[in-house]
Design goal:
23% strand, binds adenine, 13 strands, single chain, globular, binds the ligand CSC[C@H]1O[C@H](OP(=O)(O)O)[C@H](O)[C@@H]1O, transferase, Rossmann fold, EC 2.4.2.28, eleven-stranded mixed sheet, purine salvage, alpha/beta
């Protein structure tokens, strides 16, 4: 839908705040889907409204399993966010995708098993397509902003979302890389990307490479101390990338050429008279456009 852009950044491990917002304010956002991971930092940058949410909460409170993904996406939508940029720490399955590089992810394999994955369900059933789970327009902006920030960027890659919190076994790591053809691994982008699509939000994912998972013969197993050290450098690069996004996206927003903002158009199957009023009420922000 055309209107005003509001950029929502979901900061992953190592990215718990962003600096430089005008009129910066941490605000509480109430959601019928529970409490978001933390307060949300709102403000503006270069005349464009921005919101920042630390995915694990400040102080890293939530594990990948307990992140309240539905509340987070609902809260961002409720605030008026139109474009969500996920920034995440990831392991790499490719020699060429080295620690310190960024990958603008465009596909996912979802191996998570213990999370609520949809806003919809009994009383209001919907099926959206996630064949192309990220928005190419928003991904273009992330790629350009990251390159302008001096980062080595890889455009396109498949992100394996694992449940965690333990890292992969060697056999899993080899299978994801050699058999499944995945490029990076993390624990959080699913169901986040699916929920953003249900909420008709454009979503782009920037994977900040911190390690080679456990498959690499020259690098041994994943070491969280090493990850944190790489993260410290990555977080600064991520902040520079984020600072470049407003100029690229602009304050006035056209309808998404890829249809992200119309994902629910033909998705809701439950007949109006059969819908559960309580669920419909909870869907006011996510699907109010379709449910009236
Ligand atoms: C710090 S290593 C594992 C941890 O880092 C990633 O978090 P995020 O995706 O939020 O950046 C990974 O998914 C794990 O949660
Ligand atoms: N190797 C890895 N596996 C899963 N999540 C990660 N986050 C950072 N590195 C990771």
């Amino acid at each position: 839908m055309s209107g005003q852009t509001m950029i929502g950044v979901i900061g992953g491990s190592g990215l718990y705040e962003i600096a430089g917002l005008e009129d910066a304010n941490w605000v509480d956002v109430e959601s019928p889907w529970g409490a978001p991971s933390d307060q949300i930092l709102t403000g503006s940058l270069g005349g464009v409204a921005m919101a920042f949410l630390p995915r694990h909460g400040r102080g890293h409170v939530h594990s990948p399993t307990t992140v309240p993904y539905r509340a987070n996406i609902d809260a961002l939508k409720r605030l008026g966010v139109t474009d969500v940029i996920s920034v995440s720490a990831c392991g790499s399955f490719r020699d060429a995708m080295a620690p310190g590089d960024f990958v603008v992810v465009d596909q996912f394999v979802d191996r998570t098993i213990a999370r609520e994955k949809s806003f919809f369900g009994m009383g209001c059933v919907a099926h959206v397509s996630v064949a192309h789970p990220t928005c190419p327009r928003l991904s273009d902006a992330c790629e350009t902003a990251a390159r302008d920030a001096g980062v080595t960027v890889h455009r396109g890659g498949t992100y394996l979302a694992m449940e965690g919190p333990q890292f992969s076994t060697l056999a899993e790591s080899r299978m994801y890389r050699e058999v499944w053809g995945c490029d990076v691994i993390g624990m959080t982008n699913m169901p986040e990307a699916k929920l953003a699509r249900e909420a008709e939000l454009c979503y782009a994912s920037v994977a900040m490479i911190t390690d080679y998972d456990s498959w690499h013969p020259d690098h041994g197993e994943v070491d969280v101390t090493q990850i944190i050290a790489t993260l410290m450098g990555n977080a600064e690069k991520a902040r520079t990338m984020v600072a470049g996004l407003p100029a690229l996206l602009g304050a006035d927003r056209e309808t998404c050429p890829h249809g992200c903002d119309r994902a629910l158009e033909y998705a809701i199957l439950t007949a109006p008279e059969k819908r559960d009023p309580a669920l419909v009420a909870k869907l006011d922000a996510v699907a109010g456009r379709m449910l009236g």
